[in-house]
Amino acid sequence: MAVRLGSDPLDRMTIPDGTTVEEHDLVTDGNVIVGGQSTVDFGVRGHSVMAGERVSFGGHIEAEGDCRLDMWCDVNDNVLVGENAYLGERVRIDGQLKVAGDLDIGDDVDIEDGFEANGWIVIRNPMPTIVFLFVYLSQLLRIGEEDAAEDVLASLTEDDGPDHDPLVIPRGASVSDDRWQVSTPATVGDDCRLHGNIRAQSLTVGRNDTVFGSLRAREDVVVGRGTEIKGDVTTRSGSVEIGPGVKVWGDVVAGDVALHENATVDGTIRATGEMRMHTDDVLDRPDETAEAMAAAAEELERDEASTTTSDEGDDTGAKDGSVDDTDSGDGSVGTDDDTDEAVSSDSDDTVEASD
Predict the structure, then answer these.
(1) Which of 147, 196, 207, 243 has fewest C-beta within 10 Å?
(2) Beta strands 25-27 and 20-22, pairing class
């Protein structure tokens, strides 16, 4: 995820492709970034986990990479870290902390079941992570090192982990098995499986998702191809666009409603403005699954073409072999010529004897 100076990387909730809720865990392949003063009632599993001040986690944290918890964070279970861990002051962990790398721990940290670290352990009272980053970036900009500041932001959002977009939860959000509530726009990627009602300023849901709950926004709602919403889709003052193959188990309520002709709504549709049917794909972003399938099909066609060319070459070689057999037949004809020469020689000898 590229971040430009002047933009806020936590200005929307972003749920990347393939994110799932498994029992009581929120699972994603990329990094997890949680804004300050948020509540996440799930456990979290991802590559690296970074949380602002006063974030509360209702389950454990499993990070393949680093884990950074700012001051006053609260974790209701164990914290397992594959690389390095950074804990701000007054962080509370109700379970055990295990770190495969280095541990940088602040003042007055409470770890109920103790901790283990295979690398260096540094205990100090550092300034909050967000404050440190703000001061550092401000100093870089003051001396004109804008490129260096860009690199710092990129290193935070594009670490050396897997090539996946991060899961971003903005400041002041509430995420649980019952409700995902934010005051910012929200985007859900493709092939996700989520539990809970989603509430946001505006909402875009990707392709082939399953949401066990309803969607509600103050502004527009867009639902992509093949997604199943096991609840209502409503907006207070915006429009609702529903793509092909979508199934909504509940009602659809909006100002304007655009419904694909192949979509299904089990409940009622109430529109105070325009209601229309369409045949378009409602999402502008590329369909990575379809692109991957197209690339695989092209590769398969190339392999088949190469195999066909190879087979044709083998058939040509076989035909050349039959020509060689014909040549050997000519050799047998040559044997007949030798016989004729022998007969001619005998005739000459007979003529000389008669003479």
Answers:
(1) 147
(2) antiparallel
